[in-house]
Amino acid sequence: MDIVLSEHGYGESSIPLILVSRSRHTDRVRRLSVDVRLAGGIPEVFTDGRNEHLLSTNAISNAVYALSADHADAETEEFALALCRHFLVSSPSTESVEVTVTATEFAPMGHEENSPRHSFRYIPAPRATSRAVGHRGENPCLWSGMSGLELFKTTGSTFTGFRQDKYLTIQPFADRVFGVELTAEWQYRDAERFDGSSRARAQEAIHEEFAAHISRSSQHTLHRLAEAVIGTCAEVCRVRMAGAHLTRGLVDLSPFHVDNPGIVYTATEHQTSPLAIEVTVGA
């Protein structure tokens, strides 16, 4: 019986760093986590234990730290592209490299709008994501995104007309509160022509569309948000969204003889309803 190594890859994940930019009136502080994955091209490392073409994970981690010093003022998309190009060179046998950078901002503290501010507070979510994928001999693909974005509507959401089933216990909602946690990612048509304004415009499109549209379901909302990103950002060719409908049910306060006219809702996170879509620009 022949045993064949069909796929192989390795890397380093969750490489942590704090990146401080000091080139502005107010400093900028970001917490970054970097994942690097190298795939293909070195089967002998796995099958025979021959390491002459193996780039160590120590070198991977140190390269992330060293290259970050030259990208303190850069967007994380540019940093991810630089790392992707570096590892294709430093590991010449590797067939492809994928670099994902997750970033969270520290917000400056201070009351004087025009005065320099050098103290910060950490804002854990949403997290900005950047992903560069390079295959040897091909142009790299570049993605931007965000994760951990929680959105909530107190009105403007319905849920009616759904399939009837013998196990169904809920009633239709002509108006309901609606909570969703999102991970969104969008791909650029040309990684080499990345525009640093794209992220802000895409995020604003998501926020504005969520606030404006009447949600018929979680699925309907995700599609509308993806459409909004493509409609706003002409440089984007593909949008992926994954999320979870966060159940927010009215708490029954009647045993305590207390009315609850849409004020107190459950906020448990142990059970969610996941969903995902991908939207592309047609020919």
UniProtKB/TrEMBL annotation:
Record flagged with keyword tRNA processing: no
Cross-referenced SUPFAM superfamilies: Tetrahydrobiopterin biosynthesis enzymes-like
Source superkingdom: Bacteria
Class of the enzyme per the UniProt entry, highest EC level: oxidoreductase
Entry keyword set: Oxidoreductase, Purine metabolism
Catalytic activity: urate + O2 + H2O = 5-hydroxyisourate + H2O2
EC code(s) of this entry: 1.7.3.3
Listed pathway(s): Purine metabolism; urate degradation; (S)-allantoin from urate: step 1/3
Entry keyword annotation includes Oxidoreductase: yes
Gene3D superfamilies: Urate Oxidase (3.10.270.10)
Entry similarity comment: Belongs to the uricase family.
Protein's job: Catalyzes the oxidation of uric acid to 5-hydroxyisourate, which is further processed to form (S)-allantoin.
Protein name: Uricase
